[in-house]
Amino acid sequence: MKEAYPVITGADAFLYEGSKIGILLCHGFLGTPQSVEYIGKVFAQQGYTISAPRLAGHGTHYKDLAHCSFSDWYLSLEKAYLDLKERCERIYVIGQSMGGTLTLDLASHYKDIDGILLINPAIHVPAMSPYQNIPPTKYINESKPDIKNPDVTEITYPKVPAFAYQQLLTYMDVVKKNLPLVKNPILCFQSTIDHVVPPENTDFILQRVQSDIKLKHVLDNSYHVASMDYDKEKIIRKSLQFIQSLSASNHLNKVSQ
Questions:
Q1: Which of 110, 60, 103 is nearest to 82 (CA)?
Q2: Which residue, 17, 211, 230, is CA-closest to 103?
Q3: Going by DSSP bridges, is the β-strand pair 214-219/139-141 parallel, antiparallel, or unpaired?
Q4: Alpha-carbon Rg of the chain, whole angstroms?
């Protein structure tokens, strides 16, 4: 799709060149790379190559989402993954909210992704179901982003076309059916209080993916957009431990072959 509006200041994609180990970061529905910028910078300081694409229709104007399908969102992430693959020998993908949905979809197609990390991933959100039954051209007013820390401001849209929600609902159903195809090592972060995506989504995903390695960490002091909330340092610490342990394991396997 072609966007009709310019990118909002601070909402653009970013890339930090580093080692041959890459980390792909995927923001969520109505969000932008700004929501994962802090954790991306810390990972970059650790020497990793970091890529955070801006999903199609996001970070410009809410009217752009009226012409954007879930396939456009997926293609945004897939392109960034393939570009990162040209730079790196190993890749880990971190997705937040709908970014987690997209990450699961990507992993179901690319079995060689070394590990996926999901932050409050979305696979079933009953509160959104009524949006299926309203005209797709109708605009829905958005509430303030679900962040516990009152000092944090996320770049997002004040309203969104119902069509975008309908695309998200359809997409979650598609990805839900394909969860058994996911076999990559997986780490999930689950906020105990999430006013957007029911925390049970994380457990549902972990029960259905076929990964040999499944881990979960609970976030007690963050709401939905946890990458910008009080637990962001915990997310960084546990993510680095997960990535380093998998990278070390992959290295030992190569040496022993």
A1: 110
A2: 211
A3: unpaired
A4: 17
Instruction: Check 97, 108, 191, 227 and give the catalytic one.
Output: 97
β pairing state of 139-141 and 159-161: antiparallel
The amino acid at 208: R
Predicted confidence (pLDDT) per residue in 209-237, tens digit: 999 999 999 999 999 999 999 999 999 99
Task: Say whether 194 is catalytic.
Answer: yes
Q: pTM for the complete prediction? A: 0.95
Which tens digit of pLDDT belongs to each residue from 156-201?
999 999 999 999 999 999 999 999 999 999 999 999 999 999 999 9
Spatial distance between the Cα atoms of 77 and 93, rounded to a whole number of angstroms: 10
Amino acid making up residue 131: Y
224 is catalytic: yes
Q: Where are the alpha helices (DSSP H) in the chain?
A: 37-45, 70-87, 98-109, 162-177, 200-208, 232-256
Contact 104, 116 (CB under 8 A): yes
| Catalytic residue status for 97 | yes
